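On clarity, I found the account of how folds are encoded harder to follow than it need be. For illustration, here is how one protein appears when written out as sequence plus structure tokens:

:::
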Amino acid sequence: MADAPNLNGQPLPAEGAYAPDYATARRQFREASAAAGARLDRLLHPGRGPDGGELAIDLAWLGPRDAPRVLVLISGTHGVEGYQGSAAQVGFLQSAAHSLPPDTAALLVHGLNPYGFAWKRRVNEDHIDINRNYLDFSRPRPDNPGYPEVHAMILPDVLTPQALALIEQQLMAYMARVGMGAAATAITGGQYTHPDGIFYGGQSLCWSNRAVSDIAQRYLQQAGVICVLDHHTGLGPAGHTELICRHPSGSRALALARQWLGADVTSPTEGESASAVIDGNVRMAFGGLCPQALVVAVCPEVGTAPPQQVLAALLADNWLHQRGVPLSPLGDAVRARTLEAFCPADAAWRAQAFARAMELHQAALAGLASLPLTATTEATP
């Protein structure tokens, strides 16, 4: 696929929007925001990147501050997946941002998990998957009875190709025994019992999700209708963008997502998605945080590589930060492997993912504009 068109019919070079590291991604985002006339803000993170550099969630607001319709674009919920999401946001700033429909604004949340983005990890500074963490922790944690058996297989004493091959053999045998659906839930559904494991949801609301609450309170309380696109990668056929929608079956929000964004919208609860049903999803928090608004929240999920390759990268990263030395030649190799698993260097993949993101941004804006303002006051079911 060639360069993606913008709203004005001019080509946008996909490759130039992709950054090699977090610092470059931040700089490109902030420069594109300034050039588009956005109002910039940042929420400083207490940690540092592997280069000792500053970490932050960067925020860009375009359009009227009191706009009743708001498009929210999020990158980096899963850290390393932010390399694709950041490119999509830069593309938006260079194109659609210049022709927002009337009464419409856009809020871009860059690097929601800045630690994971900088360290090329899917998890945050506390080893938490923040997309399993937006929960009411005064209530019992979600149960995942299948995970302990999985955990016993995945953390070898040493990281070698032979160790990873053995883990893959054991997991394949496990999947064959319990079935793919049960295995997917056990492995990826989220767990709250093993802090040194994968897809760990934590024991309290993490820094990034406290920031989500703050962002919603500061920027979105005037909105009557909100569309949230939370850019992700790593699941599904390579190059295909699945639009994962976790609104309840039969809900107005799910119907609108299908109407606005088309046939690629899938519902995990209806068994249509490559994703397991999960608890603690970040973008689904916006409905509760903005009770005055109708919220349509969707995850554009771009497939990258075979699932065993993606899982192997996650297991290597997990081992590195549990038993290895992150700042080492091996650490550099693991980070490079993780980046390739979630944002392939292949130019055709990047162009295809970028072009689809541009299409989705335009479709979401058109969907927001299609709702009469009198119809936007019904809150998300």
Q: What stands out?
A: The radius of gyration is 20 Å. Confidence is low (pLDDT under 50) at residues 1-11. The longest helix spans residues 347-370. The chain has 13 helices and eleven strands.
